[in-house]
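User: Study the shape:
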Amino acid sequence: MYSAPHGGSELPHMARSGPVDAVVVGAGPNGLAAAIELARHGLTVLVREAAPAVGGAARTEELTLPGFRHDVGSAVYPLGIGSPFFGSLPLERHGLEWIHPDVPLAHPLDGGGVAVLHRSLEATANGLGPDGPAYHRMLDPLVRMWPTLADHVLTTLLRPPHDPVFMARFALRALRSARVLARSFRTEEARALLAGNAAHSGLPLEQIPSAAVALVLMAAAHAVGWPIPRGGAGALTRALAAHLTSLGGVIECDAPVRSLDEVGDAHAVLLDLTPRQILAVGGDALPARYRSSLERWRYGPGAFKVDWALGAPIPWRAEACARAGTVHLGGTFDEIAEAEAYPWLGRAHPRPFVLLAQPSLFDPTRAPAGQHTAWAYCHVPNGWSGDATQAIEAQIERFAPGFHDRVLARSVRTPADLEAWDANLVGGDVNGGAPTLRQMLARPVLSMSPWSTPVKDLYICSASTPPGGGVHGMCGFHAARAALKRSFGR
């Protein structure tokens, strides 16, 4: 286990007018969460953001045509509404409104079949035919115990659980691959539903802990839903920023930090950065052993993303897809498993698994009247330079014949484009590092407080720390708690 003693290396000192207690580098959801937690304990906080606007990968922009507002990065937030930290904040006072689609998720199959993930556990189970009882038995304990489950999965896996019996039962299923967990089901619909949720991890479906990702996402759908913010992802981060400023926090945009020499005379510095940027910013201040650990960090598959301005809704063959906020496209479990294995072999699959969202069906602020937006992405090798646009659109056309005729304009983002837009998306990796079992236990190092570093008063608050990827703010929350205890004695 790598320790991070309080008496480690010192932060470089640079005087500045108006010194603050803490500087947070990066105004993504985790950076803002860290700043809020520090500010609500009475500390003065400055957030420095390299981009011209707050949000990190949670921003909304007009990418295609005037009036069409697209979520450039993340968009659907089961862990956002289910976050213990976000749930403790009065974000609705700052304009945040959650919209729940009629159906969280639909997964069409060839021949017109479709698996539907309803808000209701019972309705979902009833729609899975002979697999309904098995699905209900699998998810019911997790849904009933969602606050406990969320509390434990949204922290380091090394922390002793408050409810060890419940978490041990969860671990019996979660610490498997999706391939093994799929043996619980007989129908293609139930197996495909599981596969699509597991594929959010970006892991091969034969790898642990892909089953855990599927279980948490499906349980969240029933417990809290898969909502979208009215107005787009940027509404969430704008609400976080507004709440921070109401607490006295200060945010500077267009203010990159290239070195720790630039952070000023702060008592603590928290970096909403991944290991690659931390190595660049930290310089010689980081001990050699810690640098070596960060240099071994492995990034996961990249995302290849397409946004569309549409003249009409997507013409889904399966009616349930037209009521879903999110649609998984990829066919059967075996098809998805094959597609998700390819990026780890350095190849892009010709028929990729596609994750699609269609927010304008439920939020009219996203597009001009009578028109719509949609986005989709697939996993490709990290840093891949090819073009998956036709492959993604072919998968949509497979389940929605006539889709091409409704496209008014498109915006394509390669892994390199995503990284240029947000430097934390290294090679297009949206999770801050591959969520392998090893890198979930040692994220980025094996420690009971992985948010701390060996450098005195320097912390990491990005998705490269527990609990990892997703918009929930918990990486920032835990980093702030570590700083409050270690640097401020609270």
Residues 210-223 form the longest helix (14 residues). The longest strand covers residues 302-310.
